[in-house]
Structures are given as C-alpha cells and as structure tokens.
Amino acid sequence: MAEEISAEAKKETFDRSPRLQNWVVCKRCGCRLKRHIEYLKAGEFEVGHVQRVLVSHPGYYHLYTNQTETLTPIFITAKCQRCGFERKITDPALTLEYLQSVKERKEAVGLFV
Ligand SMILES: [Zn+2]
Question: Which range of residues forms the domain containing residue 70?
C-alpha cells in the first residue's frame, strides 16, 4: 500500500491538495525540513493500522445519526538533517482515505475535460 501511495504521489496526483503542502518543522532546532507531499513522494512514511471512528452526522429524522467510518493514518518519519532529531508525524490530511478522495476527485474532473 505504501508503494502505491508514493507511486501516485510521484505522478503528482496529490500536488493540488493544499493540505499536503504543510512544512514539517523540527521540534528541537526549529529548522524547516520538507513538505508533507515530499515525504509521500520519497516514500518516507508508513501506513498505520485501520481505525474505526464514530462520526456524527446531522440527521433528518433523528437529530444525529452515528456512523462508523474507517480511518487509516499515515505516519511520516521526519528526521532533521541539522540536529538529528527524529519524530513521527501524522495529520488529518495524512490518511489513506483523504488521499483516496483527492485521487478520485482528479479522475472525476478528468471526465469533463
Ligand atoms: Zn533539528
């Protein structure tokens, strides 16, 4: 799965997502490392375990309907070149499901070109 993501990232599928343009900043020395998208392209990440989360949606007949959705976090392993500090990072945009939705939107747009 990780290989598919980095292959897709190299095709620039995820480049247009502003949420993946965030910089990773070193917690220790404060220097800028790389953008989230660059870690995806370089394959410097790992795919976590699927999580089930309960999401509340405003309902029509009921006030809220609860649905379980799956969420697969992606962890970037960011290592600072200057001080060597290493940490794992994840983000609401760094999930398999989010990347999938970016990819699908691109394909959907392609139909109308
Ligand atoms: Zn550092």
Answer: 2-98
Ligand 1 centroid to residue 17 C-alpha, Å = 26
The domain tally of the chain equals 1
pLDDT digits (tens, 9 = 90+) for 28-55: 999 999 999 999 999 999 999 999 988 8
Whether 110 maps to a domain, the answer reads no
Question: Other C-beta atoms within 10 Å of 100: how many?
Answer: 13
Ligand 1 centre to CA of 27 (Å) is 7
Rounded to two decimals, what is the model's pTM?
Answer: 0.81
23 CA → ligand 1 middle, Å: 13
In a domain, residue 49? The reply is yes
Distance from residue 33's CA to the centre of ligand 1 (Å) = 8
> 45: CA distance to ligand 1 center in Å?
18
- Does some domain include residue 111? no
